[in-house]
Design a protein that fits this description.
heterotrimer; A alpha+beta; B mainly alpha; C mainly alpha; A: alpha+beta; 7-stranded mixed β-sheet; 6-stranded mixed β-sheet; 17 helices; 27% helix; C: mainly alpha; 10 helices; 69% helix; elongated; disordered N terminus; disordered C terminus
Chain lengths: 541, 347, 301
């Protein structure tokens, strides 16, 4: 039960401003021990030539699929490893990858995957169901950042080409989960030879993480060339790739701050910049050599209020109602610039079950004051992570705006910024009165947002929202999460969010702007909700 | 600490070094204890910082076990010291790599920056200081005084930002951060200093690229240090300017250049060496801010990232490394001082 | 930067630097030095600003009343920030926060350092040993690195930033005071005073302490500049003063996020620079008054 949260996605790295995290490859790098012989593959079948350069502000915790779970690492892992199913660039519908077909049971508890013939790892070994079982079990048993994705599932292999994933509870989201990079399939023989294990105690006994930082062991279109953690990764086309490689022979992914990315993309020939602000992206819109897309990101900034009256005045529904009416929603989106949108609900606009803008809450100071019913002297502490600026928006700025908005209805907000590492402790324990928070999806499915339903471990428990506080919403959440038909599921999630907007601990503010800028000769320069950028799909026109 | 007696015997020197080395060991122990206690006072939990917002209890437990955080503090400390003796600084909770590996990557980056800045500072600082002293109370002297005062008053983080804005963003003359352009193939890793490695490999394109990346952060660091050196050099030169041996040299009719280089600078050298020790210290401190601004992947950024994510093994590693550098530099300065100024008796 | 580098020096070398002084050849009046006058003038302006900021600021520094990120104009000479606040007002009001804090910092560090330095110098023995080893320990870090670890551990706030900087800067005072006390108490007139039957305590009060106060005052003035820089540096790293309090360092830090809007970082940075420069000018002049030969800061502080 978790999410691409603060700590992981943004928490502790990008801090002192946009230019804090630049950095490109130096000689001080982990030399790759991979010497995959004649690695001139890739350009063989008429694909593009040259080097694709991708600039991103890294949050880099390494590229072992079993341990990683940050946007940077997901993007890299996706280029080097395959998953059972996958997504087309920018889409969220599962399509075949290593599994050529699959079948789900009626109760969404059992999924059977038929593996494709002729899939080989980069060292030429054929990929079998044993590798899938090993990889998925290792993910669960490592107890790392992404382990929760498959918590409560069992993986078996009836034969060499069949894999069965069974879930304890109905889980219609399982297919989409199996397209996320932590569930990548690794070469079990290579892993075992380098200390890898999928045993129950893998969290203590697995020693393969350092090895995977120097060499990849997957079946994806690229293999790891050189890795300099937090600086730069070089990927090379996989000479033994089983599929149809459309990509570049070489890809360099660099840690770059946004202002630097802006200049690089204007000077480069095969360049993509992933972290430009809307303002920066618009400044190059007229440049005919560039393609610019500005869009709302799948991440959501929100305010969360504690439901426990013994902890916070927001335990009082009148106060929550007043706050909901007092926030200047349009203004928050402006903090992030063009492309940012108000978040009508907790599920981002790109996903199944998102609310339309017509359901959005709007500021109404008169109604807010009325809701307060003449109560005065309300003081509340608003906590936020002081060292993070996801999507270029600092939590401190959002918090200061909340303070200013609520002052207008006479609620006195004290700001309480602390580093994410400190913030998360009190937040997770449900001790904060109010928090500015942020949620990025773990996988592109509304079920990832079940943590918002009352009684759920996660967002709801962070706000002390018990199932008994709103039993009908808890039931609605359960029903939505286990409904198989996607249309029905989407409607149930919409209903749930409308109820959230009536009363809940959540005050969704906005989906920040996210821009992607690439040189115009490139194809598939699309922001991807799961992989950020689908590197293998990027080709040349 | 000063004696007219010359002491050239080796025994005092060896004893001196041994004593300083012993002090170094004590210092390391002190530092490890201080870091341990400090990071224990912390309200946050590193597991949360590194696992995410709401990790499963099993994941937290696994994390605590992996990094030994479930053990009582004294046990943690002893385990750490046991590993330290074997040269093992533990695993960083942030990068999941051995701290020694992380340090090995970031130290050369900072070293390159530091060397560049120190060499520049020394050349221009000494020149400006000598000039100011020789032209004491003239416009030149006052000019140097004002400029150096400005140099030590500049907030480095702000100065770096302004430089970036102008030279990179506005005019595009210099690269905006990092150590090398992506199109440049990194030279084979010999020393870890990109410029030097490129020269060793005979790759002048890579050298020029690495050098261009070095200019802005290097000069920003230099602004402070060049001022420091100039000010020390000036007062050191003033001290010897009217010494008898300088007067004698002048009386002999030696050229001005010879008097300055052979007699005055030699006389001022001990003070200049001392200030170089200070400069080295200030470069390390400046690295924290400058590396943050220029995305220079060195020890300063590593220290900053570890500090804010409470990555204990990394904090300890950085602390120990920096303290050792400080102590070593001080030791070297003292030794050098003894060599160039024989009046000094070690003690 | 701004890491009082002299703190890194072992006491032996500090003394060495200080004792190598030529005789005073002539003395100039500090008032005739244009830099000193300029320093006093700028400092006076900032002090006036700090006292009267609420009257001088054209707008409420916290009010998010204006269009966001406007370039400097007649209405907003320094522009507006990411939340539509008037940057000029914020820069002015921040003086009210930063200057008293810097004073508090040097006063705290100065009194702790002086007390320990007097104890170490006058009492000597194991106290001397403990104090000086502690000073060595603290000094073996760059000030900003140690302060960073302290504030990250205790949580970033103005209070903890000051606390951290007191921890890293007391050794400077302790060392100087200790060696002053040592040299004064061995001076002939003090020895004579004691020979005439004065108690150690009395000698201390009558002869030693008064002679320490002067130099420490000079030192405090000089280190005001460094205190300002260090405080701003910590806030820049997000480890000092927290929003919404306007603070120069954190304003520069936010400015880095909005890189194209140069005014957001430039003006608060200029404020830091001018205030620090003013105190450095004054310190330089003061040093001239006290010791014309080594008028350069840093060589015995």
């Amino acid at each position: 039960m978790q999410g691409t949260r603060l700590g992981k996605a943004i928490g502790l790295v990008a801090v002192v401003g946009g230019i804090a995290v630049a950095g490109c490859g130096g000689s001080a790098s982990t030399d790759s021990t991979a010497s995959s012989g004649g690695n001139g593959g890739g350009s063989s079948n008429g694909g593009p030539s040259g080097t694709l350069v991708v600039d991103q502000s890294f949050v880099d915790k390494g590229i072992d699929p079993g341990h990683e779970f940050t946007p940077t690492n997901n993007m890299l892992v996706h280029a080097m490893y395959d998953t059972l199913v996958t997504f087309e660039p920018g889409k969220t519908d599962p399509v075949p990858s290593i599994a050529e077909s699959w079948e789900g049971s009626k109760d969404a508890k059992r999924f059977t995957f038929k593996l494709r013939d002729g899939v080989k790892f980069s060292d030429g070994t054929p990929l079998t169901s044993a590798d899938v079982v090993f990889s998925l079990n290792r993910l669960v048993n490592l107890q790392g950042s992404g382990s929760f994705l498959l918590a409560g599932t069992k993986v078996t292999a009836p034969d060499e080409n069949t894999v069965v994933v069974t879930s304890e509870t109905s889980n219609p989201a399982l297919l989409r989960i199996l397209a996320t990079p932590p569930t990548s399939i690794l070469n079990s023989k290579v892993l075992k030879a380098h200390g890898g294990t999928d045993a129950k105690d893998a969290s203590k006994t697995d020693k393969a993480e350092s090895f995977l930082q120097t060499q990849s062991a997957g079946s994806g279109p690229y293999v790891l060339g050189q890795a300099s953690q937090n600086q730069q990764y070089t990927l090379k086309a996989n000479p033994n790739y089983w599929g149809d490689a459309k990509g570049f022979p070489k890809v360099v992914v660099r840690n770059m701050a946004a202002p630097t990315q802006l200049l690089n993309v204007q000077r480069g020939s095969n360049e993509i910049a992933l972290d430009l602000s809307a303002q920066q992206a618009n400044s190059v819109k007229s440049n005919g050599d560039l393609q610019v897309t500005t869009d709302a990101s799948v991440n959501i900034f929100d305010v969360e209020a504690n439901m426990d009256s013994s902890i916070s005045p927001t335990g009082d529904r009148a106060v929550r109602d007043a706050i909901r009416k007092a926030l200047d929603y349009e203004g928050y989106a402006k903090l992030s610039g063009e492309g940012a949108t108000q978040a009508p609900g907790v599920i981002p606009s790109q996903f199944l079950g998102a609310l339309p803008q017509s359901d959005a809450v709007h500021q109404d100071l008169e109604a807010a004051k009325q809701a307060l019913g003449g109560k005065t002297g309300i003081k509340v502490k608003l906590s936020y992570p002081s060292d993070a600026t996801p999507n270029g928006v600092s939590f401190a700025s959002v918090a200061q705006k909340v303070k200013s908005d609520l002052a207008k209805i006479g609620i006195d907000v004290t700001l309480d910024g602390s580093p994410a590492v400190t913030f998360l402790k009190d937040y997770g324990a449900g001790k904060n009165q109010m928090s500015v928070s942020y949620w990025g999806p773990d996988y592109p499915d509304p079920n990832d947002y079940l943590v918002y339903a009352p009684g759920a471990e996660g967002r709801a428990s962070d706000a002390n929202w018990e199932a008994s506080d709103a039993p009908e919403l808890a039931a609605l959440g359960k029903k939505a999460g286990s409904t198989l038909d996607d249309d029905q599921r989407g409607q149930l999630f919409q209903e749930l969010q409308r109820k959230f907007n009536e009363d809940s601990p959540y005050f969704p503010l906005f989906q920040p702007a996210q821009a992607i800028v690439g040189t115009s000769n490139l194809s598939n320069v699309v922001l991807d909700p799961t992989y950020t950028l689908n590197i293998p799909a990027v080709g040349s026109n | 600490m000063r004696s007219r007696r010359k002491s050239r015997a080796h025994r005092p020197l060896v004893r001196f070094i041994l004593r300083r080395l012993a002090a170094m060991v004590l210092l390391v122990i002190g530092i490890t204890i201080v870091s341990f206690v400090l990071t224990q006072a912390v309200p946050g939990d590193p597991a949360l910082a590194n696992l995410g917002q709401n990790p499963t209890p099993e994941a937290i437990q696994a994390f605590h076990e992996k990094y030994g955080l479930d053990k009582p503090l004294p046990t943690q400390y002893l385990t750490y010291m046991g590993h330290l003796v074997q040269g093992d600084l533990g695993t960083s909770q942030q990068t999941h790599q051995p701290v020694t590996h992380d340090l090995g990557v970031s130290i050369p980056a900072t070293a390159e920056l530091a060397i560049f800045s120190i060499v520049l500072s020394a050349i221009f600082g000494v020149a400006a200081g000598v000039l100011a002293a020789l032209r004491r109370d003239t416009a030149v002297d006052n000019g140097v005084r004002v400029v150096t005062l400005m140099g030590i008053s500049l907030p480095m983080f702000w100065f770096g930002l302004i430089a970036l804005y102008l030279f990179f963003f506005k005019w595009g003359i210099l690269p905006g951060g990092g150590r090398l352009s992506p199109t440049t193939t990194p030279p084979p890793d010999v020393t870890g200093l990109d410029t030097l490695d490129a020269l060793l490999a005979g790759d002048f394109g890579a050298f020029w690229d690495a050098f261009k990346h070095l200019i802005m952060p290097g000069l920003v660091l230099t602004a402070y240090n060049v001022s420091l050196i100039a000010r020390y050099t000036r007062s050191a030169v003033l001290e010897v300017l009217h010494a008898d041996y300088v007067r004698a040299a002048r009386a002999k009719g030696l050229s001005n250049w010879t008097v300055v280089t052979r007699y005055i600078l030699r006389g001022a050298l001990p003070s200049i060496v001392t200030v170089m020790g200070l400069v080295f210290a200030s470069v390390l401190a400046g690295a924290v801010l400058v590396e943050n601004i220029f995305g220079w992947p060195g020890i300063g950024q590593y220290a900053y990232k570890s500090a804010i994510s409470l990555d204990l093994p990394a904090i300890m590693g950085v602390s120990i490394f920096i303290a050792l550098v400080y102590v070593t530099i001080n030791l070297l300065v003292d030794l050098l001082y003894a060599v160039i100024d024989p009046r000094v008796r070690l003690g | 930067m701004s890491a009082q580098p002299a703190a890194a020096l072992p006491p032996s070398r500090l003394r060495r630097l200080r004792t190598r002084r030529a005789s005073r050849t002539r003395s100039r009046s500090a008032w005739r030095q244009p830099t000193m006058v300029a320093g006093l003038a700028i400092a006076a302006i900032w002090i006036v600003v700090a006292i009267f900021a609420p009257l001088l600021a054209p707008h409420d520094p916290l009010a998010q009343d204006f269009a966001i990120t406007q370039a400097p104009s007649g209405a907003h000479p320094f522009g507006t920030d990411e939340l539509g606040r008037d940057v000029l007002s914020r820069v002015l009001v921040a003086a009210r926060h930063s200057l008293p804090l810097a004073v508090l910092l040097v006063v705290l560090a100065g009194s702790i350092g002086t007390t320990l330095g007097v104890l170490a110098g006058y009492v000597g023995g194991w106290i001397d040993g403990v104090v000086m080893r502690l000073a060595d320990l603290v000094s073996s870090f760059p000030a900003i690195v140690l302060a960073m670890v302290v504030t990250a551990s205790l949580g970033p706030s103005t209070r903890n930033a000051v606390l951290a900087l007191v921890i890293v800067s007391w050794p400077i005072y302790a060392r100087v005071v200790r060696s002053l006390v040592l040299s004064i108490s061995q001076a002939e007139y003090v020895q004579a005073f004691r020979l005439h039957g004065a108690s150690a305590r009395r000698a201390m009060r009558k002869e030693v302490l008064p002679n320490v106060v002067g130099p420490v005052t000079v030192l405090v003035t000089i280190y005001l500049a460094d205190a300002l820089l260090l405080l701003a540096g910590l806030s820049f790293l997000g480890l000092g003063t927290q929003p919404p309090t306007p603070e120069w360092g954190s304003m520069v830090s936010v400015g880095t996020q909005y890189f194209q809007n140069w005014w957001m970082a430039t003006f608060p940075g200029l404020a830091i620079f001018s205030a620090v420069l003013a105190f450095n000018f004054i310190g330089d002049g003061l040093r001239d008054v006290f010791d014309p030969q080594s008028s350069f800061r840093g060589d015995d502080a």
